[in-house]
Write a structure and sequence with these properties.
The structure is a single chain. By secondary structure, this protein is α+β, with helices and mostly antiparallel strands. Helices cover 20% and strands 35% of the residues. It is globular and about 55 Å long. It starts with 24 loop residues before the first helix and ends with a helix. The relative contact order is 0.12.
Length: 146
Amino acid sequence: MHVEIKIDDSYQEPKIIILTATMSEEVNHIIQKLSEHTPCIISGSKDGKVTILEQDDLLSIYASHGKVFALTSQGEYILKQRLYEVEEKLNQNQFVRISNSEIIHLKKVRHFDLNFTGTICVELIDGTKTYVSRRYVSKIKKILGV
């Protein structure tokens, strides 16, 4: 795909034109993403206060005991959304699901330990350790280029 941006003072608002030989799944996906108007706000509660969480501050998002938590360097926040709903709001280039109950921020990983048989140990920059479930090992290895 080729992306071209032209800056022109005569336009009052952005105009998007898609040039393609045929309609494809990729083009439909782009149209769908451009048409979404819902804000990608993730808010969490901690100590009775609701805070807007920036995606760059998130280390991981996980489900435990029927609740969904967001782990940041400032602590854990309880989220009202389900894990799959949060996943839809996250930047797909920076976040990856590592199990049915956890999503991690790839830029907040200190290292991946591939020495474990059948799984991968992930250490986040705050020292938290978590594990990639066997179901997601091949996906993580593909992302890492291993």
